[in-house]
Design brief:
Length: 167
């Protein structure tokens, strides 16, 4: 997103401010959802659903202001594709993936899709790597087993954040 912000600053200042606002919203949403998911192992609809609307509106309007129809389409498809992947994962192993994670995947797909397909791929992959490393650390420290449930939302948000900052 940093690279995209730099490009928009020069080419479409209004789009720059919209994307910057979307990025700041992401940080607030991510912090809020991380704390809630760690404490209660839930990603509340009252945060996730409005986040999809806010992120979608800000990013899509920025695409339209910048005249970038391809980015607008990629943003929408990014949300839909990542949501569909998480739906399949939930169907395959319901105990391993909560529906809150599935809904959050749509929001993160909007952000990552806006950046590009590689960001969507790497941000998603990084979430699973970070989650696996945390699970291994829990098992190595004997604070958990292979059956221990961990909140996955923070890892999804961290993987997306890394891609938004450096991707």
């Amino acid at each position: 997103m940093i690279t995209e912000l730099a490009r928009l600053w020069a080419e479409a200042p209004v789009a720059f401010w919209l994307v910057l606002l979307a990025g700041l919203y992401f940080l607030v949403m991510a912090a809020w959802l991380t704390v809630i998911d760690i404490k209660h192992q839930v990603l509340p609809n009252r945060i996730v659903f409005p986040s999809a609307a806010i992120a979608g509106a800000l990013l899509l309007v920025a695409c339209l202001v910048a005249g970038d129809g391809a980015a607008a389409l990629r943003t929408i498809l990014g949300g839909a594709v990542l949501w569909a992947i998480y739906v399949v994962l939930r169907l395959i192993y319901p105990a391993g993936m909560g529906y809150g994670d599935v809904k959050l995947a749509f929001v993160l797909g909007l952000y990552l899709g806006f950046i590009g397909w590689p960001a969507l791929l790497y941000g998603t992959f990084l979430a699973f790597v970070l989650g696996a490393l945390w699970g291994l650390a829990l098992m190595a420290s004997r604070r958990g087993t292979a059956k221990t449930q961990i909140p996955f939302g923070p890892f999804m948000l961290a993987g997306a954040l890394v891609q938004l900052v450096i991707g």
